[in-house]
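pls read this protein:
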Amino acid sequence: MDIQTVGVIGAGVMGVGVAQNLAQTGHQVILVDIGDDILQAAGEQIRNNLRFQRN
């Protein structure tokens, strides 16, 4: 079984971490939460995490 797209429900601390890890291992990730503001904050958190990993 070859899973390529994964859905993550909830963009809290754990959801962001799971989504980021899946994305970094080559999966397409669909992150879902109840508000656009929460998803926007999750995107910023992932960008910050990636920035810190590169240093």
Notes: The mean pLDDT is 95. The beta strands are 5-9, 28-32.
